[in-house]
Write a structure and sequence with these properties.
11 strands; alpha+beta; 4-stranded antiparallel beta sheet; 7-stranded antiparallel beta sheet; 19% helix
Length: 166
C-alpha cells in the first residue's frame, strides 16, 4: 500500500509554492535552452548523406561560432529565411579562396582537396569562382546527382546559425 501511495504522490504531487517555482524554473530553462541555444531541427532530404540521414533529428548549437569562424570541413546550419527554414551543409571553401570542381575533383586555389566524408564518386565540373569576404562556400556531402539538382554555393557568415550538436 505504501508503494502505491508513493507512486501516486510522484505522479500527482502536492501543489506547494516550492513545487510550482521548480516547475516554472524548469519550463523557463527549457524555453531558453531549446529556443535560443539548442534549436531542434529535422534533416529533410538526402543532400548530406551518408553523414546525416533524411529524417534524423538534431540540434543546432548556436554558440559554436561565437568566438571563431567556420573552418573548412565543418558542417554548418545555414538560415534561409528566419530561423525556421535552414540548410545543413559542409564548408568547403573560406573567404578569399578560389573554388573549382573539375571532373569530380574539388580544387581550392588550384590544389586538389581530399574529402574523406564522401562515399560515392561524382563528376561535377564548375568553373573557378572567388569566395567574397565574410562568406563561405558550402555544398552537401551527397554529390551523386547532376550539379543542376543541388543547392550549394556561397553564403554570408551572417546566415550561419551554428553547427549540428552531433
Amino acid at each position: 500500500m505504501a508503494i502505491n501511495k508513493r507512486i501516486f504522490k510522484f505522479f500527482f504531487p502536492s501543489l506547494t509554492p516550492a513545487y510550482l517555482i521548480r516547475v516554472g524554473l524548469v519550463a523557463l530553462s527549457a524555453y531558453l535552452i531549446f529556443g535560443y541555444l539548442l534549436i531542434p531541427f529535422r534533416i529533410q532530404g538526402t543532400s548530406m548523406e551518408p553523414t546525416y540521414q533524411n529524417g534524423q533529428i538534431n540540434f543546432c548549437w548556436k554558440l559554436r561560432y561565437l568566438f571563431s569562424k567556420p573552418r573548412r570541413g565543418d558542417v554548418v546550419v545555414i538560415r534561409l529565411t528566419g530561423q525556421k527554414v535552414t540548410l545543413l551543409k559542409r564548408v568547403i571553401a573560406l573567404e578569399h579562396e578560389v573554388i573549382e570542381f573539375h571532373n569530380g575533383k574539388l580544387l581550392i586555389n588550384g590544389v586538389e582537396q581530399e574529402e574523406p566524408y564522401l562515399r560515392y564518386p561524382y563528376d561535377w565540373t564548375l568553373p573557378a569562382r572567388w569566395v567574397e569576404p565574410d562568406s563561405i562556400y558550402v555544398v552537401g556531402d551527397n554529390r551523386r546527382g547532376p550539379i543542376q539538382n543541388q543547392i550549394f554555393g556561397q553564403t554570408s557568415l551572417k546566415r550561419v546559425l551554428g553547427g549540428p550538436l552531433w
